[in-house]
Every structure is written in structure tokens, then in C-alpha cells.
Amino acid sequence: MKKTVLFALLAASCPALYAEARANLFHIKRNKNRNEVHYAVRYDEKTCKPVEGDAVYGYWLNLEIGPNNYEPIGRFERIAYGISSQELKGDDLMVQLKAFPDRVIRVNFSTAGGCKVTPHVAINGQESKLKHIYVFAEEGLIKPTVKYVDIIGVKGSAPVTERINR
Q1: Dihedrals φ, ψ of 140, to 5°?
Q2: What is the dihedral of CA 118, 94, 45, 70, to 10 degrees?
């Protein structure tokens, strides 16, 4: 049985013992089509801590089909869109994507004013709130070639963007 199905069954059968919540973190847009890869985190509402194991997970939002069409990231797609590591350090979950091994995404869990979950990443050398990533790639014979990646976020109240040329 898949973990997400097991978590849903546990939460439904004993909500007082297992108060799992989910928070959307950020997503990846691509030039290929309108479909997006979304990343979310599972956490315990009572403690405002990520659930043990693979708290952060990715899934497809298939906008080409419809606004509410979701599916898991496939086995081969995990090479590009998978998570290489996630480790809890204090109140933060440090996450690395396979496609961006040099950028650590810090997911902060704050209890100020209720549980708030916020992803942060370095954009232009400054830690910023991560909104989304845009990948521009050209189709190749075997696989696409990434030309550039834009990391989009917010620093304070100002939008920030960094382009990484490949």
C-alpha cells in the first residue's frame, strides 16, 4: 500500500492520534506544456513538525487535461523531478532536488500565529521565499536539453528572480 494512502487511512480512522496536514511548497513550470510539477510537505498539525520519512513529495498537476488532474511522478521522471535528500535540522527541513543538487531548499516550520510552512532558497545569493521554478528546455533526440532555469521568489515584499544558464 502506498504511503500516502496509508497516511490518509490513518488520519481518517483516528484523527485525534494522527493529525497529518499538507502544505503546498512550490512548483516547477516548463516551456514544453502547461503541466506542472508541484511539491508539498506532510506535517503533524499538533507539533508543527514534518512527518517522519519522506515528508516532502512531488506530483504532477496535469493542466493540459484539467485543473484538478493529479498523478504521481513516474519512476523515470524522478531522475529530473525527484528529491535526492531531506533532513530535519532544528525547525527546518533541508531538501535537495535531483535537478538542483547545489541549491538546498530550507522548509521552515514556524508556530508563530499557528503552524506556518515556508520554503526558502538562495536567489542571487540571498535567502528568499521560493515561489516557483521555470525550466526552458529544447527537445533532443534522446532527452531534452535544459537551456536555462529561472528561480522565482520574494525577498521581503520584493519579487526576486535568478536565471541559471546551462
Answers
A1: -120, 180
A2: 80
Cell of 133: 521554478
Show the 3-state SS of 1-26: CCHHHHHHHHHHHCCCCCCEEEEEEE
Residue 7 lies in a domain: no
Residue 165 in grid coordinates:
544558464
Is the residue at 86 inside a domain? yes
CA-angle at 74, arms to 104 and 116, nearest 5°: 40
Look-up of cell digits 521581503: 156
Residues 55-68: tens digit of each pLDDT: 999 999 999 999 99
Q: Decide: pTM greater than 0.70.
A: yes
Report if residue 6 sits inside a domain.
no
Considering only CA atoms, which of 69, 50, 51 is closest in space to residue 59? 69
Instruction: Decide if 2 is inside a domain.
Output: no
Task: Output the average pLDDT for the chain.
Answer: 88
Locate 34 and state its grid cell. Answer: 502547461
81 φ, ψ (degrees, to nearest 5): -115, 5
